[in-house]
UniProtKB/TrEMBL annotation:
SUPFAM superfamilies: Acetyl-CoA synthetase-like (SSF56801). PROSITE patterns: AMP_BINDING. Its EC number is 6.2.1.16. GO terms for molecular function: acetoacetate-CoA ligase activity. This is Acetoacetate--CoA ligase. It is an enzyme of class 6 (ligase). Residues 543-620 form the AMP-binding enzyme C-terminal domain. The keyword Nuclease does not apply.
């Protein structure tokens, strides 16, 4: 990325926006209540990490957490990961969801390929949650019991989660497009007692029945005592489900428990709220456990301050229930905002679908993965010419770095005065390390700021902090939403090996990061997938960003494969748009694009067309496992096939390895 691009300002918050932002109100509160004054965001960020205990107590007080701290112990322990936040406090995450409810206001607006746009009010959400919670308690579910979901991004799934959280049950979710083995790999290790599941779903116009999958999952989970079927694909699901004492239909519970009252179990701050999972590309997915209190504080800060959400917002993020962004969407309710759900293929029948939904639902915040925004761009979608987006004030992007071309498309084709904030974080903390700020400008290709309370830095190989250069993304101070532990990791060895094996006591995330002297951030892809040519290291995202300029390319994967101690080969694998083919002219254009936007050293040795690129169940392309395969690592050691959305795509790379004459070792 050139200096010229880095310094190009695309948007500035108006003085009015800054003054009415939650972040400005928080700064005013700090001055009036705590005697703390900060001139700008970066000063506030520095205080939030230097005085981390004071900062998180301020978040507790500012957002008026309903719970008991009981003593003055905010953080115990000597060094990460052996540190505990608010060890003696009690509260309940779900109780805070309903604090700002307005009975007749929409809590959830939803639409899918099978459901037309509709809404669930706060009154309905509370009653449905109470009914499900009462049923769970009636069958003996207690705090700490695991409840799993094999359900779609629909309001029933959110209701089920809130019911679990209200009684202290531990939630875990897989999207229904996950195959049986992938679900078992995740759920079997946590020994659930109850499963919520949709009978099926529709995607890209095609219907997928899931009743047989459910039956197979039930057989593989010996601890499962009850399955609750949510009718989604068919109205008459009762007739399709074999009679069983261990299976009940969702509607039946709502009908029989409609007089229930919602109550909230007061739980330890670090009581498990949900279990998320690592991608599982090189082994069984690790169960990442987050606590009620840590997620509550982090998400109130993330939504309330970084994303500036409030009761007047309609907050949308395109996600499935298998991605941590679903959890982020649910937490939007903490601010009293209306959350907006879409279930289905965002490109069906075309990439206009979500922009049309943005207009009809009056979205104020439109969130999506960077790849989805780039797909809209490449398909030639021009939302501002077709749709009334007058309500849209912000667009969020995450999942992978948004290239500068994506920033340009948003401002040229979506809305000129929209706040575009990019976020980078992870399932590991279920939040962002870097993200938006309503007080700061937007620079092309950059993330606005380091998130408050997140001591994110860039380290060089010697472990020294660097500015305006690319290094390892590290976190040097603990955060409340760091995992409380990994499931079935009694001595914490897997947890330590995942983040703390490189820099003792410091979290190494595995991304390349540049912090600019202005305090913005630029992510350069995974550090373990680095392209190193002639001693010049480059993150793969830089090359992908350059390739986004080539309209024929739908997707790409570039690898740097060592051949000897002095040589390596760098193949570029391309998925072309329908009807495209690799010609000498296209190859020349690709090489020129990489030469001009990256460096001459990073021009690929070969440019190869493939039908598909391997992706995780969350839709992220994988680099390191493919690199390992091409270096001769046996398939079973390089990748867990069950973790892939499209396992058949691996076949090409196995053949390619053979063509290189590489033997497995």
């Amino acid at each position: 990325m050139t200096e010229e691009v880095q310094q190009r300002v695309l948007w500035q918050p108006s003085q009015e926006m800054q003054e009415r932002s939650n972040l400005k109100k928080f700064m005013t509160w700090l001055r009036e209540e705590k005697g703390l004054s900060f001139e700008n965001y970066n000063e506030l960020w520095k205080w939030s990490v230097d005085e981390k205990e004071d900062f998180w107590v301020a978040i507790w007080d500012y957002f008026e957490i309903k719970g008991e701290r009981k003593d003055d112990i905010v953080l115990s322990g000597e060094a990460m990961p052996d540190m505990t936040w608010f060890p003696n406090a009690t509260l309940n995450y779900a109780e805070h969801i309903f604090r700002k409810e307005d009975p007749d206001k929409e809590a959830i607006i939803y639409q899918s390929e099978t459901r037309s746009e509709s809404a669930l009010t706060w009154k309905e959400l509370r009653q449905n949650t109470a009914s499900i919670a009462a049923y769970l308690k009636s069958i003996g579910i207690k705090p700490g019991d695991r409840v799993v979901s094999y359900s779609s991004n629909i309001h029933e799934t959110i209701t089920a989660f809130l019911a679990c959280a209200s009684i202290g049950a531990v939630w875990s979710s897989c999207a229904p497009e996950f195959g049986v083995k992938s679900v078992i790999d995740r759920f079997k290790q946590i020994e659930p007692k109850v499963m919520f599941a949709v009978d099926g779903y529709q995607y890209n116009g095609k219907q997928y029945d899931r009743l047989e999958n459910i039956r197979q999952i039930q057989e593989e989970l010996p601890t499962l005592e009850q399955t609750i079927i949510i009718p989604y694909l068919r109205e008459d699901v009762q007739e399709a489900v074999p009679e069983s004492h261990s299976t009940i239909i969702w509607n039946q519970i709502l009908k029989e428990s409609r007089e229930a009252t919602l109550t909230f179990e007061q739980l330890p701050f670090n009581h498990p709220l949900w279990i998320l999972y690592s991608s599982g590309t090189t082994g069984k997915p690790k169960g990442i456990v987050h606590g009620h209190g840590g997620i509550l504080l982090e998400h109130l800060k993330f939504h309330g301050l970084q994303n500036d959400l409030n009761e007047s917002d309609r907050f949308f993020w395109y996600t499935t229930t298998g991605w941590m962004m679903w959890n982020i969407v649910v937490s939007g309710l903490l601010t009293g905002t209306t959350i907006v759900l879409y279930d289905g293929n965002p490109g069906y029948p075309n990439y206009e679908t979500l922009w049309k939904f943005a207009e009809s639902s009056k979205m104020t915040v439109f969130g999506a993965s960077a790849s989805l925004l780039m797909a809209s761009s490449k398909e030639g979608v021009k939302p501002k010419e077709t749709y009334d987006l007058s309500n849209l004030r912000a667009i969020g992007s995450t999942g992978s770095p948004l290239p500068d071309a994506g920033f340009d498309w948003v401002y040229e084709e979506v809305k000129e005065d929209v706040w575009l904030y990019s976020t980078s974080g992870g399932t590991d903390i279920c939040s962002g390390f870097l993200g938006g700020s309503p007080l700061l400008p937007v620079y092309a290709g950059e993330i606005q700021a380091r998130a408050l309370g997140v001591a994110v830095k860039s380290f060089n190989d010697a472990g020294d902090e660097i500015i305006d250069d690319i290094g390892e993304l590290v976190i040097t101070e603990p955060m409340p939403s760091m995992p409380i532990y990994f499931w079935n990791d009694e001595n914490g060895e897997r947890y330590r090996n995942s983040y703390f094996d490189h820099y003792p006591g410091i979290w190494r995330h595995g991304d390349f990061l540049q912090i600019t002297s202005r305090g913005t951030g630029i992510i350069f892809g995974r550090s373990d997938a680095t392209i190193n040519r002639g001693g010049i290291r480059m993150g793969t995202s830089e090359i992908y960003s350059a390739l986004d300029r080539v309209p024929e390319i739908a997707d790409s994967l570039i690898l740097d494969i060592p051949i000897s101690s002095e040589q390596s080969m760098m193949p570029l694998f391309l998925v072309l748009k329908d009807g495209g083919q690799i010609t000498d002219e296209l190859k020349t254009r690709i090489k020129q694009t990489i030469r001009q936007n990256c460096s001459p050293r990073h021009i690929p040795n070969e440019i190869i067309e493939v039908d598909d690129l391997p992706k995780t169940l969350n839709g992220k392309k994988i680099e390191v496992p493919i690199k390992k395969i091409l270096m001769g690592v046996p398939l079973e050691d390089a990748i867990n096939i069950g973790s892939l959305l499209n396992p058949e795509s691996i076949d090409y790379f196995l053949e390619f390895k053979e063509s290189l004459g590489v033997r497995s070792h």
